[in-house]
Amino acid sequence: MNTKNKWRIGLILFVSTLCCLNYFMTEIHTRENFSTFNSAKLNGKISYLRSSKSGEGFILEDSRKMYTIVSIRSSLNDFNRFGNVAEVGDSLSKPSFYDTLFLFKKNSMKIYAFTFNKFP
């Protein structure tokens, strides 16, 4: 085996290792975020909101903690994702370890209920 092939094999092994490490670190981070969100008793107004393909994040007034969820579309929320409906100033409520997050719209007084992906 020549030196060029050894470098290619080494590079392939290195990149594969980095990809696997990234996958497992992301999995650990996702589970930790869910555990924090699931155990939290939430009640307050949204002061910060972000949304992406991978999930939605929010911070409540009087808190510095960012909560991250992956909402599920259903008839409870008119088949919307949390990030498409929620706005800064809207209110949230969720008891600890409850499987539904309630969103109270500030302008329309409409209530949306969101379930979310659970990570054991």
Characterise the protein shown here.
- With 120 residues, this protein is of the alpha+beta class.
- The protein is elongated and about 70 Å long.
- The chain has helices at 3-39, 82-85; strands spanning 42-52, 55-60, 67-69, 71-72, 91-94, 101-104, 111-116.
- The chain has a 7-stranded antiparallel beta sheet with strand order 3-2-1-5-6-7-4.
- It is 34% helix and 30% strand.
- The model has no long low-confidence stretch (mean pLDDT 88).
Spell out the blueprint of helices and strands:
Layout (H helix, E strand, L loop, with lengths): L2 H37 L2 E11 L2 E6 L6 E3 L1 E2 L9 H4 L5 E4 L6 E4 L6 E6 L4
Give a brief rundown of this model:
The chain is built from two helices and seven strands. It is of the alpha+beta class and 120 residues long.
3D shape? elongated
Any low-confidence stretches, pLDDT <50, length ≥5? none
Structural class: alpha+beta
| Intertermini distance | 46 Å
Which key terms come to mind for this protein?
single chain; alpha+beta; 34% helix
